[in-house]
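User: New here, any thoughts?
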Amino acid sequence: QVQLVESGGGMVQAGGSLRLSCAASGRTFSNHAMGWFRQAPGKEREIVVVISRNNLNTYYADSVKGRFTIARNNAKNTVYLQMNSLKPEDTAVYYCAASMGGYGGYATPQHAGDFGSWGQGTQVTVSS
């Protein structure tokens, strides 16, 4: 397992931007696909975006396509989520997650059960 710590959440007006970061401990960061999930009050946790181990493949939920961008730096054990054109419906706690081991380099697992390590979450609030 890896330990994950998110940062960068906060409050922003609709149309604004935020950048989330997730720092991972350990020497196996590049062995894991990395994802961002979110959970709004009263709703289930949902996938936002995933990036493959080799940094060459991504999956974006339809709700964030064209607005959010994921990037990872394997040398720094860090994954980032750039969020632009934020909407009130993006308000949620955002979680960074590392996949279970064993996925191929291009894999982008998309279910919460595919991920074995989770950060503590960071709140993102978008006001209208």
